[in-house]
Amino acid sequence: MVTGSRPTSDISDTDNGPVRGALGRRGSERRCIVTREQKPPEGMIRFVVSPDNRVVPDLAGKLPGRGMWLSASRDVLDSARTRQAFARAAKAQVIVPDGLADLVEAALVQRMLDAVSLARRAGQTVCGFQKCREWLTSGRVGVVIRSESASPDEFSRLVSGRRSLPVVTVPDRVLESAFSRDRAVYAVMAPGALAQRLIAEHERFSGVAGRPLPDPAGVSKEQAEL
């Protein structure tokens, strides 16, 4: 059993429509149609069936129609296709797109990019070693962001002497596109809703990516000793 989840038999395999708010209120739970485990929706992926019977990812939880939920895991997404889980939950024949896990992964990368871009326009994030150090020193940081190609040694220098903060590792194009800069490998974001959104999207991305993310020397991928 996955940590933080529990089996349940009192929740339907589908919901009654789009989730209110970003991904529902904290404390609400959904059941994965593959693992049969009950989890908070912010750690899961919702799917709906389009009018032409195609399975469509609903990462924001807002598309109309009855929703089917999967844990944010590449293995689970792959199993849903091979085990006909969508057809059973929908009680109908459905078309599952090829490379479903890859489609969801790409969409989650875009959602992380959107969060950083919104934060940049709002003046809530900066990139570059020196600016990041200034924000870290002043205590203005809610999350530290680094690209997958970031140097572990340089990252360790960036966060040295600071208290613990969440750290997310993102594909290179997230920071490069958000800041319109080549080799943008470090950024920090102010505390607030956008920082929490980025952290939540990164947690889903990490599961769906299905690969270990590179860790800076002596620093875990979730947290750094700042």
From TrEMBL:
Transmembrane segments: none annotated. Gene3D superfamilies: 3.30.1330.30, YlxR-like. It holds the Pfam family YlxR. SUPFAM superfamilies: L30e-like, YlxR-like. Residues 30-102 form the YlxR domain. InterPro entries: Ribosomal_eL30-like_sf, YlxR, YlxR-like_sf, YlxR_dom. It comes from the Bacteria. Residues 1-28 are annotated as: Disordered. Residues 1-15 have a biased composition (Polar residues). This is YlxR domain-containing protein. It comes from Gluconobacter oxydans (strain 621H).
